[in-house]
From TrEMBL:
One of its GO terms (molecular function) is oxidoreductase activity, acting on paired donors, with incorporation or reduction of molecular oxygen. Transmembrane segments: none annotated. The keyword Cytoplasm does not apply. Residues 39-142 form the Rieske domain. This is Rieske (2Fe-2S) protein. Keywords: 2Fe-2S, Iron, Iron-sulfur, Metal-binding, Oxidoreductase. Gene3D superfamilies: Naphthalene 1,2-dioxygenase Alpha Subunit, Chain A, domain 1, Rieske [2Fe-2S] iron-sulphur domain. Pfam families: Rieske, VanA_C. It comes from Actinacidiphila cocklensis. The keyword Iron applies.
Length: 372
């Protein structure tokens, strides 16, 4: 990993001509798919109970269900018989039974029963694909790629999630944009103008950043330059993010395919909160992603303060998120209208994260068109 920002360079803005464009011959980033050989959350654990639920990764539809043992299984969401979604079926013990002719499937996707087929008659079809599943941090993760890679691919390590000193706020929602817009949005803190109505005038200063083959990490110093300050933001940062005399250090990291953000207030040596996010493409063209976020907040020392602060923090983060969503969805609409990426990016670390996302992703397959 190399430090790509020289000490005197506060902005990191590239000066040389030609630094703004996509590398010659490089694939348009918005046509690059998220690499399937990773663990992706596709549902909240709390949403997978007695009934099967439909989930998706990049146009691959899955049926999730929790068997009697408590384990969650993920099957291709189509019955091998007549392609009816298995997510419309019913759970029986550890099996999932299709709603139509009642074929039953094991958690490994193999057919366990065709009720009306006498024993020994014919050979049952092969069944459907099963995906490796893990449950952690209140999320159901699946491994949509090569199952042989699943075991050796680690889940994210989030010790704060189960630490008694922290409480976690969970986010789950769909945003209508390619996942790369989300990475760029969070890493480029020069967009604080967008949030001026919510957080006041925050002045971010890039302290430096490092880029590697799979990651980009940026550190910003945040100072408040006046204007409105939000109570939610203040509570979130304990002393107040951008409080009148404060200078907080925010570290944002894309480590493929996830993103994290931590905030260390001035006069502190550890983060007051950490955010972990995954952007999971939903449709085959990956122009829509599902955002799963875990905001792990250190509990204040005053008993009960967290309970009081909780709704304010929720409201503040939702307002900031709504503004970000407005911007990234507008970016996606522009891409859709123009049919290509015509951005003129001037911030080197964003050029670097684009390269990380491009080189670690996979080209999107052309869509199969229905015949007829
Ligand atoms: S379509 Fe599923 S059992 Fe017939
Ligand atoms: Fe933002």
């Amino acid at each position: 990993m190399t430090d790509t920002t020289s000490p005197g360079d506060a902005t990191g803005i590239a000066a040389q001509d030609g630094a703004y464009a996509r590398p010659a011959g490089a694939l348009d980033l918005r046509r690059v798919g998220a690499h399937p050989d990773n663990w992706y959350p596709v549902a909240l654990s709390s949403g997978v109970r007695g009934k099967p639920v439909a989930a998706t990764f990049g146009g691959e539809r899955m049926a999730l269900y929790r068997g009697a043992s408590g384990a969650v299984h993920a099957l291709e969401d189509r019955c091998a018989h007549r392609q009816v979604p298995l997510s419309m079926g019913v759970v029986e013990g550890e099996a999932l039974r299709c709603c139509y002719h009642a074929w039953a499937y094991r958690g490994d996707g193999r057919i366990s029963q065709i009720p009306y087929l006498p024993k020994g008659v014919g050979r049952p079809p092969r069944g459907v694909r099963a995906y490796p599943v893990r449950e952690a941090y209140g999320l159901v993760f699946v491994f949509p790629g090569d199952p042989a890679q699943a075991e050796a691919t680690p889940l994210p390590d989030l010790p704060e999630y189960s630490s008694p000193r922290h409480r976690t706020m969970t986010y789950s929602r769909t945003v209508r944009c390619h996942y790369s817009f989300m990475h760029e949005n969070l890493l480029d803190m020069n967009h604080q103008f967008l949030h001026r109505g919510v957080v006041g005038r925050l002045r971010p200063q890039l302290l430096g950043y490092e880029a590697g083959a799979r990651s980009v990490e940026a550190r910003y110093l945040f100072t408040h330059a006046g204007g409105r300050k939000n109570r939610g933001a203040g509570l979130l940062a304990a002393e107040g993010i951008g409080g009148s005399n404060s200078a907080d250090v925010m570290t944002i990291r894309t480590e493929y395919p996830y993103q994290t953000l931590t905030l260390v207030p001035e006069k502190s040596d550890h983060p007051v909160f950490s955010l972990w996010v995954a952007y999971v493409p939903e449709d085959a063209e990956q122009r829509t992603c599902h955002v799963y976020g875990l905001l792990m907040i250190e509990k204040p020392r005053v008993p009960g303060a967290m309970r009081l602060a909780w709704p304010l923090i929720r409201r503040f983060t939702e307002r900031v998120f709504a503004e970000d969503r407005m911007a990234v969805e507008a970016e996606q609409r522009a891409w859709d209208e123009q049919g290509e990426d015509r951005n003129h990016e001037v911030f080197p670390l964003i050029l670097d994260v684009r390269e990380v996302l491009r080189s670690n992703g996979v080209p999107l397959k052309p869509l199969a068109r229905p015949c007829g």
